[in-house]
Structure formats: C-alpha cells, structure tokens
Amino acid sequence: MRATVIQAPHDIRVQEVPDPSIQRPTDVVLRVLRACICGSDLWAYRGEAARQPGQRIGHEFLGIVEEAGSEVAGFAVGDLVVAPFVWSDGTCAYCAEGLTTSCAQGGFWGSVGSDGGQGEAVRVPFADGTLVKLPAAAAFDDHLLTALLALSDVLGTGHHAAVGAGVKPGTTVAVVGDGAVGLCGVMAAKRLGAERIIALGRHQVRTDIARAFGATDVVAERGEAAVEVVRELLGGEGAHAVIEAVGTEQSMRTAVGITRDGGSIGYVGVPHGSGTGLDLGVMFDRNIALRGGVAPVRTYIPELLPDVLSGAIDPSPVFDLTVGLDDVPAGYKAMDERTALKVLIKP
Predict the structure, then answer these.
(1) Of 197, 66, 180, 222, which Cα lies nearest the Cα of 131?
(2) Does 266 have pLDDT greater than 70?
C-alpha cells in the first residue's frame, strides 16, 4: 500500500509500505476514506520536532473496517468508523476517568513502529477502546464525511480548550490563534453558550470562518497591541475564558495578558517555547487558572457526534484544500506557506 512518510525536514514522500495486518486479536485493519494534515504535523515538517527518516506521519482519519481481530466485539467488517488521534485500551483507570491520552497502552499514530493516518490503510490497536462507529450512510455524503473527520482531532481539541477555559453560558471568551484548532475553539465556545467571542487573527479568510463559527469580534493586532485592543473592547478588563491554540511564547503571553482577573486559560497549542510566556507571579496575583494539554478526544466524540450529524455544528469549513494521496507533499507545502488552512486528503 501507499502511505506518507517523512524523510527529513521539508521532505515528505508518498511511497510503498507493507500492508497492515492483524497482529493482536484486539486489532482491526481500517481502509482510510478521509485523512488530513494537522498544524502540529508542521513542527516535524519544519524540523522542529524530531522524526526518523522514513517514519510514518498523520494522525487524523476515518474509514471502513476491512478486517477485525478475533477479540474485537464492537465492530465488524464494513463498519464506518472515526479514529481519535491517540489509540487507547478503554479499560485502564485513566480511560475510565476520560483521560484516554494517558492510557499506558495507548499511543499516537505515526509514532515509531506504528502506522500513520495519511495512507491507504491503518492497523488500529485496541479497536474497541479507540474507534467510534459512524452511521453507514455517512460514507456516501462527502460533506458530512469531511465534517466527521474533524472529530478525530481539531473539533475535540477546540472543545477541550473551551472546557479547560471554563466556558459556560454568558461568558466572554477570547481565542488566541486562527488555525483550525482556534477556529474550532470559537465553535466550541459558541456551542457552550458564550455570549461574546473575540477571535485574534489577521488572515481574513480565517477570521471570516471565525465569524461564521460564532465570533462577535476580530482583533488583528498581535502581542502587546492585541492585549490593549482586547482590554479596550472589554472595558479595561480581560475575558473570563481564554483559549490558547498556538503554543508559542508570544501566544501564551498574549493569553495571560487578555485574561480577566479570576479567569481561566484553556491551552491546547503544542508548546514550543511557550513556558517562558508564563509568569506565575502575575497569574498568582490575578488568580488566573491554567488548564489544558493533550485533548482526550475519544472521550469527547460521543458528546460532539450528534451535533455534527444533525448539522447543529459544521466544522467542515476548516478544510480549504483537498488533495489526493500523491499530492500530500504539496499539501504540506501549502500549509507551511499558509496558503491553506487545513488540507483534506482523499486516499
């Protein structure tokens, strides 16, 4: 089969790899219908996150079960399923608590020795604990399939940030980051009842999506200028809840600066130098809470799925470029150059 591998920074290739097969009785083999490129994949693409030459890549996908191990109880050949970006056994104490990303037997797609999602097929460990079944008819609805793909990562990650930030009905929310996760954070805040949502971003195509998703205000400034504008919008105070969806030092400093005293920051941007953006003295003095991390999207999918199926929320606009498997390298280049927001892959 063909799959995407990373050979070196800026060197993404689609090449032949061994077909996946059942290795344990709890596995399934999944034929990929839709996958995508994540903003976090760009850290490896740019050489800022180490990868071995030839390592598989990609962690967002959905597809059809082609083969099931003898101990798989919840799925059968032909089922349409979505995979969260971390597999988990579904039985450990962490899984029982909903923190599936801390499962001792869990792992990330594309890690050394595992399949990546940007290919024709994937071996899924612990299928019963990992996968979520989708309505069979969705396989024939291109728009719905695209929306459902967001459940594998960005929609659940945006929701995790909103939950961490304490978004509830009537709150004022500010979202730092206009990537797919930040935009899904806007959608999540609206879904949870936020009254006012300020999106920080300077790319009109993206901020237009933010407005469609529920943003009431857009701030194009960055750094200290952004802090001043947000506080001016809010009468000199900050936002009750702030979503940080970038992971850099500047983004975290901005998040702290625009948080209201007694407010909370939900952070889901993969940290790259962002620790130096935290001044614990400032956070202590102003009673600012910080909560977030790797999103346990497997826990959130059952909650979010009905709203996607009903059309109450539609995250599909975050996918603004579609490529076939052969053109995945061009998709990486487009996202790296910010000419695409999020690339959809149709293997």
Answers:
(1) 66
(2) yes
